[in-house]
Design goal:
The chain has 161 residues and is an all-alpha fold. The chain contains 10 helices and 2 strands; from the N terminus they run H-H-H-H-H-H-H-H-H-E-E-H. Helices cover 66% and strands 2% of the residues. It is globular and about 55 Å long.
């Protein structure tokens, strides 16, 4: 929120957005808020698509908390992967998600850059499963996360994934 606000004071931002100064301060301190409130702020601040995407991801992480946010990929049963009709598979998996996880999935699917990245992210996920860097029960190892980050940022280290 601080990055979005920039040098604008809470009072000025409250006047521009119609969101109370107290709410703006609470959001900046990490208090959860409605997505519609963030959209109102984003429109006023004229965020780029990438900035909005980052804000939505941060909101989802805040709503879920770090543990649940980190567990999102663990709910997918390995017994279902790659079998049968894709739409039925999607429905089956979606039913297994918690309400918060469903919100994250749907909110993430609304982000154009995430939709574009999905095929590559799935390849990265399956590479991690093959090498033991990703485990359905325990999540992502720190080592694999570092390698994946390096690969995504620099295009290096794919053979180690």
């Amino acid at each position: 929120m601080r990055q979005i606000r920039g040098d604008i004071t809470f009072v000025d931002l409250a006047d521009r957005t119609g969101v109370s100064r107290q709410t703006l301060m609470a959001i900046e301190d990490g208090t959860s808020t409605k997505l519609s409130t963030l959209r109102q702020i984003a429109k006023c601040c004229k965020l780029t698509d990438d900035q909005w995407d980052g804000l939505v991801v941060a909101w989802v992480a805040c709503e879920l908390g770090p543990e649940d946010f980190g567990r999102l990929n663990r709910r997918l049963s390995p017994k279902l992967e790659g079998k049968g009709d894709e739409e039925q598979l999607m429905r089956t998996i979606f039913k297994r998600l918690s309400e918060n996880e469903r919100r994250v999935v749907l909110a993430s699917a609304m982000i154009p850059s995430v939709r574009v990245m999905m095929p590559g992210l799935l390849k990265l996920y399956h590479a991690g499963k093959r090498t033991g860097g990703i485990d359905v029960e325990h999540g992502i190892t720190d080592e694999y996360l570092k390698l994946a980050k390096k690969y995504l940022e620099e295009g290096k280290g794919r053979e180690k994934l």
